[in-house]
Specification:
By secondary structure, the protein is α+β, with helices and mostly antiparallel strands. It has eight helices and 18 strands. Strands 12-17-16-15-14-13 form a six-stranded antiparallel β-sheet, with helices on both faces.
Length: 382
């Protein structure tokens, strides 16, 4: 059998659209541009607001090439800074999370900052009367709070949060108020699972956007949502939510009953699953009794950390009820999806994928994501 020269291969039929070439998933130079032009330039969902329960609580997050420190100040407001001491550049907070009383102190030379980022003290400060403490304060980044999460943007002039985040959700659900009915900001954290995935972040997004694979690798999910077995993802139609199967009582691993419907949901939201992608790194999954939020943290061309939160009514969480059957369904889905992405990653550097692959009709909507990536990178893509 002789190999086919891609340059002389016949053009793909109209039913097939080209994907991104393989190098977009492996090239460190492409990933560096993505860090600069996407993750450091767009709104990025960094931490859950409730993780900053009290003044002085902080969390750090990898945003593009930067470590970002998010904390709550003495007035209860959220602040975010580059996690870099202004003296000699040491990492200010080395822990992923923690709590301080009134200030953040660099472990190298003890430069100390208040919770609004102002330089509060430093050894021998009296010998430096000309130092402007605000000028030498931490470098702040823009913050917004929505759906119970803190979103940050490192750009000097950030894009509109309303147009790039809130409207992305409204456009998918077909109603700007639909997501608000779930009361996400008031829900309590029932379970958090972190996944370290050996795959490019775009493979993860592409997987989440389509259900062509669902009938193959998600038997538990298609038992609950039978229409997914046909390959049509919930995100394929604006406003569409996949309906629970006949005899399915709840969004659980065995289809058994879950918990009471969240207050405020409309009748048309009952017994349905809605999925929303908020580029560049958030997935929101909405079901009648809980909400699942994925936040992706791309760390390398072939490594993506994903933090997944299962959110329920506070009454459910604080009752101590067993959540395992509810959590297990999407935990299995996650592990099946991420294993599939890890099977794809090695082939991204193969000559067989040099020019990319193809999208079948039920995947055509992924092409818009590829175009979005290309536009932000300043490159024309297939």
């Amino acid at each position: 059998m002789t190999a086919t020269d891609p340059s002389t291969a016949a053009a793909a039929p109209a039913e097939l659209l080209a994907t991104l070439p393989g190098r977009y998933y492996t090239d460190p130079a492409v990933f560096a541009r993505e860090q600069e032009r996407i993750f450091e330039a767009r709104w990025f969902c960094a931490v859950r607001s409730a993780d900053l329960a009290r003044p002085g609580a902080f969390r750090t997050a990898a945003v593009g090439r930067e470590s970002v420190l998010v904390c709550r100040n003495r007035s209860g407001e959220v602040r975010a800074f580059l996690n870099v001491c202004r003296h000699r550049g040491a990492r200010l907070c080395t822990a992923e999370s923690g709590e301080v009383r009134r200030s953040l102190q660099c472990p190298y030379h003890a430069w100390t900052y208040d919770l609004d980022g102002r330089l509060a003290a430093a050894p021998n400060m009296a010998d430096m009367p000309g130092v402007d403490r605000r000028e030498r304060g931490l470098i702040g980044v823009h913050v917004a709070e929505w759906l119970g999460y803190v979103w940050v943007c490192l750009a000097d002039d950030p894009p509109s949060f309303e147009e790039t985040v809130r409207q992305a959700v409204a456009a998918r659900l077909g109603d700007e108020h639909a997501v608000e009915r779930y009361g996400v900001a008031e829900l309590a954290l029932g379970r958090r699972v972190s996944y370290d995935v050996a795959a490019n972040w775009k493979l993860v997004i592409e997987n989440f956007m389509e259900c062509y694979h669902c009938g193959t690798i998600h038997p538990e999910l298609t038992d609950v949502l039978p229409e997914f077995a046909e390959g049509y993802a919930a995100q394929y139609y604006v406003g569409h939510g996949a309906e629970f199967g006949e005899g399915v009582a709840g969004f659980t691993v065995d289809g058994g009953a879950g918990f009471g419907r969240l207050d405020g949901l409309a009748e048309e939201q009952d017994r349905r699953y809605y999925a929303v992608t908020v580029p560049p790194q958030v997935f929101v999954n909405l079901v009648p009794d809980h909400v699942i939020v994925h936040r992706m943290f791309p760390l390398a061309p072939d490594r993506t950390l994903i933090e997944c939160d299962w959110l329920y009514s506070p009454d459910v969480v604080y009752s101590g009820v067993d959540l395992s059957r509810s959590v297990e369904l999407f935990d299995r889905v996650n592990r099946q999806d991420f294993a599939a992405c890890e099977r794809c990653q090695p082939a991204m550097s193969s000559r067989a994928y040099r020019d990319g692959g193809v999208l079948v009709p039920v995947e055509h909507h992924i092409a818009a994501f590829h175009t979005w990536v290309g536009e932000l990178l300043g490159e024309a893509v297939p």
